[in-house]
Amino acid sequence: MPFRTVNPTTGELLLTVDPIDDAAVEARLTRAVETFQVWRRTPFKDRAALLHRVATILHTDAERWARLMTLEMGKPIRAAVAEAQKCAWVCRYYADHGAAFLAPEPVATDARHSEVRYEPLGPLLAIMPWNFPFWQVFRFAAPALMAGNVVLVKHAPIVPQCAQAIEDIFREAGAPEGLYQNLFIEVETVPRLLADVRIRGATLTGSTRAGRAVAAEAGRNIKKTVLELGGSDPFIVMPSANLEAAVAVAVQSRMLNNGQSCIAAKRFILHEAIADEFEAAFVERVQALTVGDPFDPATDIGPLAADYLRDTLARQVEETVAAGARVLVGGHLLDRPGFFYAPTVLTDIPPGTPARCEELFGPVAALFRVASREEALALANDTPYGLGASVWTQNDAEAEFFIANLEAGNVFVNGLVKSDPRLPFGGVKASGYGRELGVHGIREFVNVKTVWKG
């Protein structure tokens, strides 16, 4: 299957890239091993200098990279510019803090000297998604490279120009040949790479189904993996909440990236005391969103990234409505070229329906009503996923109740769930395992070596 750029705004095929052959894959693996032997001994200050140069290119040419993202997957241009700038931030963050995060740690024992060291593993395979085609890559690559590893990236087949651009950025920054390599390979090639002794670990951001496949193959070959998978994040609103702020962030969280984000709020769990007021304000804001050309800075919602994504979302909504759910706004395809779906709000959602049990990857919000914090918690945790959760309350004891009991890797109180280079990010249950970002992220793909001197 070739890599293809299809403009999601028009449906027009713009570019086709054929997968590389086995000989090219072998050449890249060989180059990665050779480069690792040098890079692992490269001083931290030189690794940091490279990441700073990469950050400068990302920031200076943010509009250029943004236009690629918008062209290939339909992200609104303002969000795409912000994504490029956030990538610059994560590069600078690890350039500035990586050496300290990986410094040897003395430990008091009965030995003359004991310490823990953090040493790189080797070539790492990354399997990356299309929805944040730059950020997902850089949040893995920046810490992995700062730790002394080298990386090979199999990007999503619908963003080949973004995939190639990232390799070009590292080359422009003066990275050693083989430090960062893009792999235009078929999915069927991935198991062979995971079985190759030269690949020392792997990370995947994507669906739970893909995560299971990668974890199983890596497990057979005893390879460390980090998985960031799907989510069906709850957004809980209690009576004491600042409703105006909660509604504004709720719409932002559900609709960001055209609704195509693992950590977007997807299930809005409303205490009955404020449900009517929240629902009315939420629907009003959704109706006011501008749907259109993602290159227009005035656009709030662009197309979904591909036709199959639009069709899957439409099916999920249709099945949910057929089972008895009510549509408050939207609920249909838009009659225009491209892969557009109307911003949608559903309520009265029956158990067992897609809007209750599955991840809806698009601009569709599901509203639920509860009578107590205990009922809110039970509904929030009633999902196979456990990525993020947002809680809105001005009661400290209530906030602590949810923080302590929500089954999620990230809990935000009175705020938008988001990734931040300074904080670890990841999920539990079917949302994956391991952490990216923060000090925890840079220590995922290292050998935590105990040293004891008698």
UniProtKB/TrEMBL annotation:
What is this enzyme's class at the first EC digit? oxidoreductase
Q: List each copy of the Aldehyde dehydrogenase domain by range.
A: 3-451
Keywords, comma-separated and alphabetical: NADP, Oxidoreductase
Q: Which SUPFAM superfamilies match?
A: ALDH-like (SSF53720)
Which Gene3D superfamilies does the UniProt entry name for this protein? Aldehyde Dehydrogenase, Chain A, domain 1 (3.40.605.10), Aldehyde Dehydrogenase, Chain A, domain 2 (3.40.309.10)
Q: InterPro entries, from UniProt?
A: Ald_DH/histidinol_DH, Ald_DH_C, Ald_DH_N, Aldehyde_DH_dom, ALDH_GabD1-like, GABD/Sad-like
Give the EC number: 1.2.1.16, 1.2.1.20, 1.2.1.79
What GO MF terms are annotated? aldehyde dehydrogenase [NAD(P)+] activity; glutarate-semialdehyde dehydrogenase (NADP+) activity; succinate-semialdehyde dehydrogenase (NAD+) activity; succinate-semialdehyde dehydrogenase (NADP+) activity
Q: Of which family is this protein a member?
A: Belongs to the aldehyde dehydrogenase family.
PANTHER family on file: SUCCINATE SEMIALDEHYDE DEHYDROGENASE [NAD(P)+] SAD (PTHR43217:SF1)
* Full protein name: Succinate-semialdehyde dehydrogenase
Q: Which organism is it from?
A: Ardenticatena maritima
